[in-house]
Each structure stands twice: as C-alpha cells, then as structure tokens.
What we know:
The protein is mainly alpha-helical and 151 residues long. It has 2 domains: 9-65; 76-139, no CATH class. Helix content is 66%, strand content 0%. The protein has 5 helices and no strands. The protein has helices spanning 9-28, 43-65, 76-96, 98-110, 118-139. Helix 1 (9-28) runs antiparallel to helix 2 (43-65), helix 3 packs antiparallel against helix 4 (98-110) and helix 4 (98-110) packs antiparallel against helix 5. The chain is flat, with a radius of gyration of 21 Å.
Amino acid sequence: MSSGQRIGIDVWSGLLLAIFGAAGVWLALDLRLGTAINMGPGYFPLLVFSCLILLGIIIAVRGLQTVQEPFGWPLWRPILFITSALLAFWLLVEPAGFVVASSSLMLISIRAQRRLTWFQSIIFTAIAVLFTTLLFVTALKLPFALWPSFS
C-alpha cells in the first residue's frame, strides 16, 4: 500500500461485515448450540455469523492490498428507496395482504435505480410477486393472507 493511499470502501465494508458477524456470534452464544448431528437453535446462526466474520476479514485484507478510491459519501437515493420499501412491506403485510405488500416492496425498491421504465418495473414486479407467492405461501405454506380482509 502506498503511503498516500486512503482506506477504500472494501476495507470499511469488510470491517462492517465482521462487526455484524461478531454481534451475531455474541447473540447466538445465548442459545443452546448442540452438536453437528443434534443441532440446537444456536448452532446454525453461530456458523453463519462466523462465516460472516471470516468473509469480512478477507474482504478487508484484500482491500488493504489493492489501490482503491477513497471512501466517499453514500448514494442517498438507493438507501432511502430500499428502506422505504422494507417499511412499506412491514406496514402493509398484515392489513393489506402478501400480494399488495410484496408489490409495494418491489415497485418502491426498483425505483432506487433508474434503469427500468415503469412498464418494465410493473412486469418485473408481477413476475416476482407471482414467484414469491408460489414459493412462500403455496410451497412453504407460510401463514400470510394473500389479499386484504374487508370484514
């Protein structure tokens, strides 16, 4: 690394992943771990968060070894749209049903970028909502109401 190089986004991203992983490991340690054959409720989360720590360290070390542009200000449009989409799904899933909530999630989150037209966004949303409905409600039998209840 050259003396004038600043820490790039890969280093910060790797460190953030490792911190999230460490927090997850810390929370998973309160759960019973069990063994590989007889897994407890904390076994899989501990495994996943440990892998997250490892991945974060690898990304950070590789970021230190390469020349990168310095970390800049975040792009606010994607952050605001994705956060709004998640909040809309959370607020709509019970009162409006899975189809309406998923549709709002997709339509709002697609607007985080400007590559798709509204027509393309609606087609993509229809396909994604159909697939997720078949997967979560039909195949996995999760207890979501599909449509709003007007009773």
